[in-house]
Amino acid sequence: NAGVTQTPKFQVLKTGQSMTLQCAQDMNHNSMYWYRQDPGMGLRLIYYSASEGTTDKGEVPNGYNVSRLNKREFSLRLESAAPSQTSVYFCASSESRDRVTEAFFGQGTRLTVV
Amino acid sequence: QKEVEQNSGPLSVPEGAIASLNCTYSDRGSQSFFWYRQYSGKSPELIMSIYSNGDKEDGRFTAQLNKASQYVSLLIRDSQPSDSATYLCAVIVAYSGAGSYQLTFGKGTKLSVIP
């Protein structure tokens, strides 16, 4: 039972470089989320996907794009990385049929932009 | 903006005491509420979920929900040093449109249990 798997776990980028964070879940959940966590700021929602084929902006979407490739996979792309995007990124998934249930988190990606 | 508010702490309690963590939320339409625990450098893990007014107990943990006051709390009885962590309150905030919602977190309360 892998749950939610994120890759990579660590990444260092130079300003202006691009990269894609990968996320996959094996719990057959409909909803998936991308958060970033900065000291003193808590978890802030970047994008979420309520179901396969749909995506919506969260609180801090600027500088990011997402793709819900299928029900299992939800990727986050940084087209031109900036130092302000240095953060820990978490992917999560939850069920959302009768009601929205608890979210399960991946292990996180620690990203540094220099 | 729909918000979830928590005291950032740190909250220090002696070992064996009751720790009380509080959370308020702004969206009256919220229906689902969660408490997560996060150790330093780790991902959040679910402790409790609560959907109805009242208390819900699970071992040493009790979640309390009061929708009229827009208030949710977490009590930890017989606190242990291993409970030292940041506790995150999370609320489902609904938006217009079918199935459109966000899982919104508070900034977390840091709890220290002193041996």
Overall description:
The complex is a heterodimer of chains A (114) and B (115). Chain A has 114 residues and is mainly β. In chain A, 0% of the residues lie in helices and 51% in strands. Chain A has no helices and 11 strands. In chain A, the strands form 2 sheets. In chain A, strands 2, 4, 5, 6, 9, 10 and 11 form a 7-stranded mixed β-sheet that branches. In chain A, β7 and β8 form a beta hairpin. Chain A is globular and about 45 Å long. By secondary structure, chain B is mainly beta. Helices cover 0% and strands 55% of the residues of chain B. Chain B is built from no helices and 11 strands. In chain B, strands 2, 4, 5, 9, 10 and 11 form a 6-stranded mixed β-sheet that branches. In chain B, strands 1-3-8-7-6 form a 5-stranded antiparallel β-sheet, with no helix packed on it. Chain B is globular, with a radius of gyration of 14 Å. Chain B starts with a strand and ends with a strand. Classes of the chains: A mainly beta (114), B mainly beta (115). Chains A and B meet through β5, β9 and β10 of A and β5, β9 and β10 of B.
